[in-house]
Write a structure and sequence with these properties.
The protein has 187 residues and is an alpha+beta fold. 24% of the residues lie in helices and 37% in strands. The protein contains 4 helices and 16 strands. It has helices spanning 43-58, 65-75, 125-131, 174-183; strands spanning 3-5, 8-12, 17-20, 24-27, 33-36, 41-42, 82-86, 91-95, 99-105, 108-113, 118-121, 137-141, 144-147, 151-155, 161-164, 169-171. It has a 5-stranded antiparallel beta sheet. It has a 4-stranded antiparallel beta sheet with strand order 1-2-3-6. The two termini are 22 Å apart. The relative contact order is 0.11.
Length: 187
Amino acid sequence: MPVYFFGHQYLPGFGSRLQPLGKVNRVTNNGVIQSLKRAPVDSYDLREAVNKAERQMKQGGIINHQATTLIDNNRLPPEQQKVALPGKEGYDFIPVADIIYCQASGSYTHLVLKNNQRLLVSKPLGEIETLLPSSLFERIHHSSIINLTTVSQYRRTNGTYVVMLNGDELVVSRSKKDRLMQLLGIN
């Protein structure tokens, strides 16, 4: 059974250990989130670290609002989660279910939303990917991440590509094709 922690999925490994499928984050005693590159992660230790951070935040310790928001947001089903993205005049809070796809443009990322709105965010695609729930989003190319629920067609003519809800066509790389087919239930 997969375990989700800060938007990343972990699968059971040997014994009570979990093998991470994405990067591991931890909340330190003062509520700061740090990336770890260690594996495997013990599921009990992971739960205890999150519980300890929550207790300290509730008891009036050093409160990191970003950490508490992240913990609260990750408790919601993926369809109800929101992501905070830097905009021209501050931050825009976008429901992740409204995102059709994200496309890289150098150090920037273009987000295409269901209401035909297009946002340019000053974050690289890799950073945006870490903010999105892996149960809804999949990278299909080094420059594209799609919302799996917004795919309307999968085509194999003149290469492999997907047609999204808004009619946009996105190329699927050869290395990502088998995984995408499996996630879409084609394989």
